[in-house]
Amino acid sequence: MSPDVRSDLDAIPAYVPGASVPGAVKLASNETTAGPLPSVAAAIADAAAAANRYPDITSRALVERLADFLDVGAENVTAGCGSVALCQQLVQAVCAPGDEVIFGWRSFEAYPIISRIAHAVPVSIPNRADGSLDLDAIAGAVTDRTRLIFVCTPNNPTGPAVPRAELRAFLDRVPERVTVALDEAYVEYVRGDDDDKVDGVAEVMARRNVVSLRTFSKAYGLAGLRVGYLVGPVDLVVPVAKMVVPFSVSSLAQSAAIACLEAGDELRARTDAVVVERSRVRDALLDMGHAVPDTQANFVWLPLAEAASDFDAHCRDHRVVTRCFAGDGVRVTIGDRDENDRFLAAAREFVSRM
């Protein structure tokens, strides 16, 4: 006889990571090409000497540095093993079995998975035709069972960011008993009019039911170290922190994240370079006839529908690995100029075959 396990596990899809192919350009996982910032790499090397010791279970030094960096109280911040772990902790903290978690779709593919893991019910709301979140429809989908709404901005994998006025109008409609999580994993890449940009931390400090989730995996280049943070009201931060797996934020990750916060000029130069390439790649794809949504992240989205799998396979044949969402589209990370040129050459050849 086999041990008893949860009977619903077969219905929970596995998270599918971006593929790696030896010798190919990997533009599948929204990583940075250059790796950690030089000053951060030095901090990681220094921290490695103490890797025989357990890390601070509360990540206190990092939390205090984040609080100073964000100009909030330390009680309003908690750290976690990447923002995706904090997303799962949040679901576990606010949802009982049968409660609903709402999100746009497509959006971050972990949302339905972590909802089901916590015995919550995922509710997906179709995006608008331009790939942006339909906040009116999301607000209209709230029921008595709704406990949590994920708002991914910029949205992964489609790219558009939510305008500030639209977000605030949406938040005004959401009952205070419902938690709204602003997933800002790509916030460092957002450009444009400051009056139009969402600042999740400012929204958090103005409302009792909003949290902001951010990560060091993307712009800061620490995807392999797994460290992120959540900012929110104390009434939400405390229960989320209780859900953490002990010692899940390593000492190397904590030291690296603190060093990241000291590297403002380095980070801005890096993200500016990505934004320049983002515009170049998107313009080239538009010239080819692709309907690429406006993007404020470090990737572009090609809504190829049934042609997505063929396009993805074509790119792999040309030693470029993209992220395929079969039947919907293909997400392509912005790499360095040479990597992007290899992708664009493959994309042009695909168009010429059609």
TrEMBL record:
Catalytic reactions on record: an aromatic L-alpha-amino acid + 2-oxoglutarate = an aromatic oxo-acid + L-glutamate
Top-level EC class as recorded in UniProt: transferase
Aminotransferase class I/classII large domain location: 25-345
Annotated EC: 2.6.1.57
Protein name: Aromatic amino acid aminotransferase
Alphabetized Gene3D superfamilies for the sequence: Aspartate Aminotransferase, domain 1, Type I PLP-dependent aspartate aminotransferase-like (Major domain)
Sequence similarity: Belongs to the class-II pyridoxal-phosphate-dependent aminotransferase family.
Domain of life: Bacteria
Function per UniProt: Aminotransferase that catalyzes the conversion of aromatic amino acids and 2-oxoglutarate into corresponding aromatic oxo acids and L-glutamate.
Keyword terms, alphabetized: Aminotransferase, Pyridoxal phosphate, Transferase
Pfam families recorded: Aminotran_1_2 (PF00155)
Subunit and interaction comment: Homodimer.
Gene Ontology molecular functions: histidinol-phosphate transaminase activity
Needed cofactors: pyridoxal 5'-phosphate
Sequence positions bearing N6-(pyridoxal phosphate)lysine: K218
Organism field: Dietzia cinnamea
